[in-house]
Design brief:
The protein is mainly alpha-helical and 316 residues long. It has a single domain, classed as ADP-ribosylglycohydrolase fold (Orthogonal Bundle). It is built from 16 helices and no strands. The structure holds magnesium ion. The site of magnesium ion has 6 residues, from α3 and α14.
Length: 316
């Protein structure tokens, strides 16, 4: 296996396993998840989405759609990315069970704008309330592109912003996607999780984003995130809280299994928390470290791996 293929598979399989593991607990309160979560095996989902064990949701599906578009176009193409998202939304392409489930409000508004002929780069909403984690959860293939292509910084920032903006065009979401990308890139370069964290804390995001936007990430960028007590992490789908939780779970644990479990036990948006955490920890520890039961129980794993293999060919 080439190095590119291994890293892509570590990241995307890590994301999908986290997503599928978190799906049955989506929207449960933290105390309910703590009481109910049995993470030894993938569970069927009955309360919110009727899904069998091992089914991945919108997070993985939109991530695969984005990766497939990057492969097909040999780079980011906003219209083609949107077409792939619509193929998921309407035809359940990229799904694990033939059902497109889990779509969030801001994503669904962006997709319906696209269906009405709005250009893809103008579909993402720009309101403060549109800062859910729906771009962050699927940005990994773009982040991998940035890691492998080593673009000039201006181009890299523009790419991450545009790729996110297809559904989420507010600066807060764009910065969240960029911080995630920077952290993942450092891990890919071989940094430890602590070194990668120091890197993002030193990065001068205020040169590119307004002071007020950078300020909302202060609990991450102040360098003290790992010390934050658990009860201070919000139960929410806000992009800032999601990135806080994923980095916190990554920094406070020592394995993929522990990190993903910790993120699910934070409650509420469990599938996305575990997907984002899983994508980072897949790269950090290698997908071979993902518990075998989880890897085996993930639906359509060979399909997911074949999309990773196609994407990896661009870098060989
Ligand atoms: Mg989801």
């Amino acid at each position: 296996m080439t190095n590119h293929l291994k890293i892509i598979t570590d990241c995307i399989l890590g994301l999908a396993v986290g997503d599928a593991l978190g799906v049955p607990y989506e929207f449960m309160r933290r105390d309910q998840v703590e009481a109910a979560a049995d993470l030894r095996h993938m569970k069927a989902s009955s309360s919110f989405h009727e899904q069998p064990p091992g089914a991945w949701s919108d997070d993985t599906a939109m991530c695969l759609a984005s990766m497939d578009s990057l492969t097909r176009c040999r780079g980011f193409d906003a219209e083609d990315t949107m077409a792939a998202f619509l193929d998921w939304y309407r035809n359940a392409a990229y799904s694990s069970t033939g059902v497109a489930f889990g779509v969030g409000g801001t994503v669904s508004r962006a997709l319906s704008s696209a269906l009405h002929g709005v250009p893809a780069l103008s579909c993402g909403r720009r309101g403060f309330r549109d800062n859910g984690n729906g771009a962050l959860m699927r940005i990994a293939p773009i982040s991998l592109w940035c890691a492998f292509r080593e673009l000039p910084r201006d181009e890299e920032v523009q790419l991450v912003s545009d790729a996110g903006a297809v559904t989420h065009a507010h600066e807060i979401s764009k910065l969240g996607c960029l911080i995630y990308t920077d952290y993942l890139k450092e891990l890919i370069r071989g940094a430890s999780k602590e070194q990668a964290y120091s890197f993002i804390c030193r990065e001068r995001y205020s040169l590119r984003f307004t002071f007020s936007t950078v300020a909302v990430y202060d609990r991450i960028l102040n360098g003290r995130l790992p010390e934050l007590p658990r009860y201070k992490l919000a139960e929410s789908g806000y992009v800032v809280n999601t990135l806080e939780a994923a980095l916190w779970a990554t920094l406070r644990t020592a394995s993929y299994e522990e990190a993903v479990g910790e993120s699910i036990r934070l409650g509420y948006d469990t599938d996305t928390l575990a997907a984002v955490t899983g994508s980072l920890c897949g790269v950090l520890y290698g997908s071979e470290s993902i518990p075998e039961a989880w890897r085996d129980e993930l639906l359509k794993r060979s399909y997911l791996e074949s999309l990773c293999a196609e994407y990896a060919k661009l870098f060989s």
